[in-house]
Automatic annotation (TrEMBL):
Enzyme Commission number(s): 2.7.-.-
UniProt feature, compositional bias: Acidic residues: 257-276
Gene3D superfamilies noted in UniProt: Inositol polyphosphate kinase
Matching InterPro entries: IPK (IPR005522), IPK_sf (IPR038286)
Coiled-coil residue windows: none
Protein name per its UniProtKB record: Kinase
GO molecular function: inositol-1,4,5,6-tetrakisphosphate 3-kinase activity; inositol-1,4,5-trisphosphate 3-kinase activity
Presence of keyword Kinase: yes
GO biological process, one term: phosphatidylinositol phosphate biosynthetic process
Top-level EC class: transferase
Alphabetical keyword list: Kinase, Transferase
Encoding gene, per UniProt annotation: ARG82_1
Length: 330
């Protein structure tokens, strides 16, 4: 496949991370300024067998972008990209090396997006003593130290206006550990036909969605627990479809695919894939890991226990929300 990037704009759906992330004109790719460690991490995915299990849970990496707007062919993962010169923003956001990734929210009509910052340690091992002290204080003053997570920010679509509602970073920094269940309930809200709740999906849709999301996160947790790495600043990104009809169709489709998984595996699937791919709607949700600017593979040092602890917190919160909806319908 050959793709052209002729113009860019700021990524409107960004709910976490640093400013300066751009998206292509069609919205399918993002262009993100990258520190060397993040680029090294994405390149290592093709070379380090221990990282291989993570690949399904990461955004697709298409290479690097330099100031002149050219893709570095040595960094391309599978299929080439040919870039035309970019409209460089006035503030020259692309004056540093950037990475080109798939835009995880692109397949969704109305993407609800949650960024969960993982880990109890918020500073890189190469940080200065002053920064270490600041980041330790930030961890203590937020939910990171006690729980291993912080709700960095999220976006929810209003069911009445079909417009996104953004909850800023200040919310995640202000709440206490006891408030985290409420935050998860806000993101996985129950929508109502009478409009009394202006966000969320119906119970029949959100419950199977939550259970499937939880399974994916549990799978990622097991992979992370087996890796010898330090993943400072890494986030768990959860995106799900806010459009009721599309979300219900997606959940139903996932169920049908699960039922038929073992049938006709090798008969007609390959022949139909190309014809059906362009006709199939997007997924009802995605769960991915993002932000690897301070991720290091650390052989012999064991897993990042603070990040594993954060995953356990997320799983407990999802279990609580699933039980809450199952038992009371709220």
């Amino acid at each position: 496949m050959e793709s052209l990037i002729s113009a860019t704009r700021p990524l409107a759906s960004q709910v976490g991370g640093h400013a300066g992330v751009l998206t292509t004109e069609d919205g399918s790719l993002i262009i993100k300024p990258a520190l060397p460690l993040e680029l090294l991490f994405y390149q290592a995915l093709n070379q380090n067998a221990e990282l291989e299990p993570l690949r399904p849970f990461l955004p697709k990496f298409f290479g690097t972008l330099k100031l002149e707007g050219q893709i570095d062919e040595n960094a391309i993962e599978e299929e080439g990209l040919v870039l035309t010169p970019l409209d460089i923003p006035e503030k020259d956001e692309l004056s540093v090396l950037s990475i080109v990734l798939e835009n995880l929210s692109y397949p969704f009509l109305k993407p609800n997006i949650l960024d969960v910052k993982l880990g109890t340690v918020l500073y890189d091992e190469a940080a200065t003593p002053d920064k270490i002290e600041r980041m330790e204080q930030t961890a203590r003053e937020t939910t990171s130290h006690e729980t291993g997570i912080r709700l960095t920010g999220f976006q929810m679509y209003d069911n009445n206006t079909s417009q996104p509602i953004n909850t800023p970073k200040s919310y995640g920094k202000s709440i206490k550990p006891a408030d985290l269940p409420e935050g998860i309930a806000r993101f996985f809200a129950l929508g109502t036909e009478d409009g009394s709740s202006n966000t969320g999906l119906p119970r029949a849709t959100v419950l199977p969605l939550l259970r499937s999301i939880r399974e994916d996160i549990a799978d990622i947790r097991e992979i992370i627990a087996s890796l010898e790495a330090r993943m400072v600043g890494m986030s768990l990104l959860i995106v799900y479809e806010a459009d009721w009809a599309l979300a219900a169709e997606g959940v139903k489709r996932l169920g049908l695919e699960a039922d038929e998984e073992d049938e006709d595996d090798d008969d007609d699937d390959e022949d139909d894939d190309d014809d059906d791919e362009s006709k199939r709607p997007g997924p009802p949700y995605v769960v991915k890991l993002i932000d690897f600017a301070h991720t290091r593979v650390t052989p012999g040092k064991g897993p990042d226990e603070g990040v594993v602890f954060g995953f356990d917190t997320v799983l407990r919160l999802l279990d609580g929300r699933i039980a809450q909806i199952s038992e009371s319908g709220q």
